[in-house]
Amino acid sequence: MKKETCLSHAFARRQSVAVQVGHVTVGGGAPVVVQSMTNTDTADVDATVAQVAALARAGSELVRITVDRDESAAAVPPIRNRLDRLGVSVPLIGDFHYIGHKLLTGHPACAQALGKYRINPGNVGFKDKRDRQFADIIAIAIRHDKPVRIGVNWGSLDQELLTRLMNNNAAQGSPSGAQEIMRETVVQSALLSAARAEELGLPRNRIILSAKVSQVQDLVAVNTMLAARCDYALHLGLTEAGMGTKGIVASAAAMGIVLQQGIGDTIRVSLTPAPGGNRAREVQVAQELLQVMGLRQFIPIVAACPGCGRTTSTVFQELAQKIQEDIRRNMPAWREKYPGVEALQVAVMGCIVNGPGESKHADIGISLPGTGESPAAPVFIDGKKAATLHGDTIAADFEKMVADYIEQRFSIQ
């Protein structure tokens, strides 16, 4: 992963232990890593390769895949090989539940091809089998030198631990509420499992913790508690966030609060896609969250006004949309051709009220004429008026000016 620093120094990042996942560094002060997960049947090699590649092109730096049966475990090595041939180096995370110990033991090529294992202490095994099966997975991780994410999910909590903490709480003179005990169970499950992994020989720099819950305040609480009680790298995510704007708003609200405290080393936005929807949308949202918080830069920012009674024309809306779409489509190639282009700021404004001022603040900006204004569009470059556009080709002319500006400023000399 390219070396990168925080854009904003308004708050300090929590210092966690660095974990190497393939070529990607998680924690240790490294930039917050964006990850995602496929929803294909992993046994379908073609579909899984296509989706992993699409997620990686969108900017996912880690991609998790489901490994739930022998067929999916057997498919992991060919998936890895196909991705490598395509030049897609994104590390793959194997998501294991219930029989992970059997799959990793029975498919050593799968164990080697994965960049990291993800296990849930609540369903790695039950009763007397739990400790043994957990130990088996940790032993395999040590043998293959793989990091492990111990991912607690409150939908599948360790029931024995929960019952014990509930009983202990009930015996207190002033017992805590059920929600507080649930949060404490999530935190203790992660910490106890990590401690056990270390006892078994897995180094601290091969452990990542996550505490997945589905409510905003619970996510803030459990991750604040975890951060205060350990220095493991932490993965953030609101599980079952939901669809559309609800999932986006809930994820951004929850993780934004925690990230603002300097907590979190890698994130996923777990959106439910619309039927036939684009899985890469969750990557875009995660990137935008980190970018608007000043933690990462992924893509040029297009500032555009919301429109009002002064802006009856739709030209500025169409132009802003066109430029944003062009940027997203071209970014994979631009990252190589134009180093630093992700820092570009473009402004597309709809009238004279804030148009010239916003355009001057951007690297390149245009103020389109609003209702009753002169049919002219001043263009500002690096804070100075560079041209005034007229006529029916204003949008096309400005698009060309943006392309020329990128070429002149960011091309490799």
From TrEMBL:
Domain of life: Bacteria
Annotated IspG TIM-barrel domain residues: 18-286
Keyword Cell wall biogenesis/degradation among UniProt keywords: no
Keywords: 4Fe-4S, Iron, Iron-sulfur, Isoprene biosynthesis, Metal-binding, Oxidoreductase
Coiled coil: none
Sequence intervals crossing the membrane: none
IspG C-terminal domain ranges (all copies): 302-403
Binding site for [4Fe-4S] cluster: 305, 308, 351, 358
A single BP term in Gene Ontology: terpenoid biosynthetic process
Substrates-to-products reaction catalysed: (2E)-4-hydroxy-3-methylbut-2-enyl diphosphate + oxidized [flavodoxin] + H2O + 2 H(+) = 2-C-methyl-D-erythritol 2,4-cyclic diphosphate + reduced [flavodoxin]
Cofactor binding comment, as recorded: Binds 1 [4Fe-4S] cluster.
Keyword Transferase annotated: no
Secretion signal span: none
Enzyme category, top tier: oxidoreductase
EC number(s) given by UniProt: 1.17.7.3
Cofactor(s) it depends on: [4Fe-4S] cluster
Annotated pathway: Isoprenoid biosynthesis; isopentenyl diphosphate biosynthesis via DXP pathway; isopentenyl diphosphate from 1-deoxy-D-xylulose 5-phosphate: step 5/6
GO molecular function: 4 iron, 4 sulfur cluster binding; 4-hydroxy-3-methylbut-2-en-1-yl diphosphate synthase activity (ferredoxin); 4-hydroxy-3-methylbut-2-enyl-diphosphate synthase activity (flavodoxin); iron ion binding
Job of this protein: Converts 2C-methyl-D-erythritol 2,4-cyclodiphosphate (ME-2,4cPP) into 1-hydroxy-2-methyl-2-(E)-butenyl 4-diphosphate.
Family, similarity comment: Belongs to the IspG family.
Protein name: 4-hydroxy-3-methylbut-2-en-1-yl diphosphate synthase (flavodoxin)
Organism lineage: Bacteria, Pseudomonadati, Pseudomonadota, Alphaproteobacteria, Hyphomicrobiales
Gene: ispG
